[in-house]
Request: fold
Amino acid sequence: MNVRRGYGADKKHITGAVALVLALVLAVIGFVVFSKLESEAYPEQRGQMSENFGKLPTTEYQGKTYQMKPNLTSMLFIGYDKLDDTPDVGFRRGGQADFLLLAVLDHKAKTVHQLHIERDTMANMTVLGITGNKVGTRKMQICLSHAYGASEEENCQYTVDAVSSLLQGIPVDLYMAMDIRGITAFNDAVGGVTVPIEDDFSAYDPTMVQGTSVKLQGKQAEYYIRSRYEVGNGSNEQRMRRQKTYMNAATELVRQRIGEDSSFANTMLDAIEDVSNTNMTRGRLINEINRAYTYDIRPAESLAGEYKKGDDGFMEFHANDDSIISWVINVFYNPVE
Reply:
């Protein structure tokens, strides 16, 4: 039995619209964690490990030699759509990874590069049978990678492996995953994010009056960043604009709250603890947030490619190989003089 991207496909306002929703919560938390890291914060960095074995890895691209940068840390943010009523199917019950954002910290250059990965990107991934045994590798939409596994940790690891495979085998060190419930939990934890209401939300909440600014509370945050149908012209372009507006406002609000209260990072993580999963310890997260400084966060990038409808009728995104290699070389390697 194949896992398809149609879990609850009839629930348009949940699975159909959630593709970029969790970006807002995950990216805000990620920006706070990753934009405040010190270059010496990771004694286990690959650069130091490479020094123990000799030279850093090199690769050839377009006639030039490149060497992997030292002192890099990569983290994958995963937003998945599994809710309590999602049917379980053996070892394929983790829900789909509708949002994927890879953040790469360069501790030497003090920069953060981001890659937003389209959920329908075709990638090779390990798949499991109904009893949990590995049945091989298949090329499918990368969002399906999170569906496999017997635990949240396995779900995330299969997604990490799929992203690494897509990006020419580059290492993905850390991950943080969150389900859809985290939107409201995060928004309320920061005290409500104030945004301009530029579209008509009367179908969801008549108090969100077009032409005003509103401090979002409770479900309003979910309406603002997730809704598409019956809002404005119903386009994804408008929804993306709202998501960026929310993310920018929320990021500044979180930084302000941390500046006012050094324990706020702990409060924020408490709020999302029940709806998130990570392979980082709480202590590491708190220490990095509280003791580090701001990095230069570069705008999120996307891979070039083309959309096609698959034989099964579902949409597929085929990333351009040159686009993948170019991004990896730029972020993970330095040219050898």
Q: What stands out?
A: The chain is about 35% helix and 25% strand.
